[in-house]
Amino acid sequence: MMQMRTHTCGELRLADAGKSVKIVGWMENVREVGSNFAFVVLRDFYGTTQVVIESEEMMAIIRDLNKESTISVEGVVRERASKNPKLPTGDIEVVPSKIEVLGRCRYNSLPFEINRSREADETQRLKYRYLDLRNPAVKNNIVLRCQVVAALRAAMTEHGFLEITTPILTASSPEGARDYLVPARKHPGKFYALPQAPQQFKQLLMTSGFDRYFQIAPCFRDEDARGDRSPGEFYQLDMEMAFATQEDVFAVLEDVLPPIFAKFGTYDVASAAPFRRIPYNTALETYGSDKPDLRIDLTCKNVTHLFENSEFEPLRGQTVKMVDISDCALTRKQVEKLLSDCEVQSGSKAYWFKVDEKGELAGGIAKFVTGLRSQLEQVLTLAPNTLVVVAAGAAATKSAGVLIKTFGAACAGHMDQERYEFCWIVDFPMYEIGDESGELEFCHNPFSMPSGGLEVLLKAERGEIDPLTITADQYDLVCNGVELSSGAVRNHDPEIMVKAFELVRLGEEDVKKKFPAMYNAFCYGAPPHAGIAPGVDRMVMLLAGESSIREIIPFPMNKNAQDVMMGAPSTVEQKQLDELHIQITAQEEE
């Protein structure tokens, strides 16, 4: 044991009664019973121990301290008269002969009560994160993260992968998000970029002859925050395999992840291999989302053809999708509240009707669909006590997906929450029409191999097929409605790469300029290779049962990408700017 202590605060048991011990930690609480009698709760990383003050000398020391001061206690362990079965150390207490102050808390009041810090305002929690992390519930999430990362490393090593670190300072490349740029002092006017992902480096490792690579990789993207995405930086289990197919990648993760989820998760049930494979278009048509939560048994049905001439204007001539929910006991008020919540999420108004106990259509838009009952029964189950929610318009698919998730969770019997359900979303479109440009753009990842290779690209170039019908050997890993990762079989052939970029108006010289290392490396003979990169932060968030990713990151930024604890981003001295040849032309007022 360390010289500063003989035992931790979570270690002593009844068998230790009579021993002389030395424990250290934070003074969590003090309860004075008399002038020279008090109970002190001492907390360290491992747990808590009760210390009983029974002398004027010891009381004088304790009375002079604020809570959260760190102290050393030397004394004798004895059996407690009033035991606490809820605590591992609840059978014993320590009677001190010596108390030493190690680190005095100089504030009479704290920003929040440590053990209830999760109830505090988030800004306060982030500003005083070092206090927030003293809360065992918060600390345990970080411990879980460490355990999961260690398990991932061990599993990947067992599968023959080498852990190789890739550069943090690199070149800017167009990979879908904004770069964080770092000025190069020795090269005025030029910048490094922090990597959005180790994408190019791991592919270059494959061309270098390494067969299986992985790392717990830091990634940097200047993106807005979401519940499942932290701004600034995040970590992923980055992996790549040479001479590999999509199924090879699937086999590795289907072997690595379920045991880790079953062992460390809030729920101890996880999908067994093989995970379900769902084509992208099928996922949208069936679940209204490319991130379906398969714990929910609801699906959407396309009934557009029935409403071409509907009397109800919001449905007339629109795309119409319906979700039938059997044995739904929600009241009208509850249904309309949930529909309102869905409208906020999807930006599209939704409607409803139900089948009452007598089997009659009632409520909501029932009068506009009663005449279509026989046709609807061919695609919907309209048994008594069935609720049907309706999405319509250009955003019908997205709206239907939101309805499924919302009502699946709200209606009893339609969601098996206590499990982890994985699936692969496959056959993503290679191209899409850009919202801003109105022109053909890459849909997912420009480094993916198009299904059909060069031949299908040439057909698109000749106008024989629509490029929007080209699929890519891309895949997403989804768990409980959360996208854990995107991956792909890579485009390792320079000729196919150039042709893929030509369809989005970029020629060979553009490819050479934007991706010089990859293009040149592939010209020296590259193996077929494939990979994926599950997000560590999202994985741990699911395992911990948290809804916000900030709960499992030791020092997270706030939603505005600010570190309120450290004061970042911050201004710098003019001397530093001069060294970097940077001039600030406009500065935001604080």
TrEMBL record:
Catalytic activity: tRNA(Asp) + L-aspartate + ATP = L-aspartyl-tRNA(Asp) + AMP + diphosphate
Keywords: Aminoacyl-tRNA synthetase, ATP-binding, Cytoplasm, Ligase, Nucleotide-binding, Protein biosynthesis
GO BP annotations, alphabetical order: aspartyl-tRNA aminoacylation
Cellular location(s): Cytoplasm
CDD domains in alphabetical order: AspRS_core (cd00777), EcAspRS_like_N (cd04317)
GO cellular component, one term: cytoplasm
Residues at which L-aspartate binds: E175, R221, H444, R490
Chain residue ranges for the region called Aspartate: 199-202
Physiological role: Catalyzes the attachment of L-aspartate to tRNA(Asp) in a two-step reaction: L-aspartate is first activated by ATP to form Asp-AMP and then transferred to the acceptor end of tRNA(Asp).
Family under the similarity heading: Belongs to the class-II aminoacyl-tRNA synthetase family. Type 1 subfamily.
Record-given protein name: Aspartate--tRNA ligase
Species whose genome carries this gene: Vescimonas coprocola
Taxon lineage: Bacteria, Bacillati, Bacillota, Clostridia, Eubacteriales
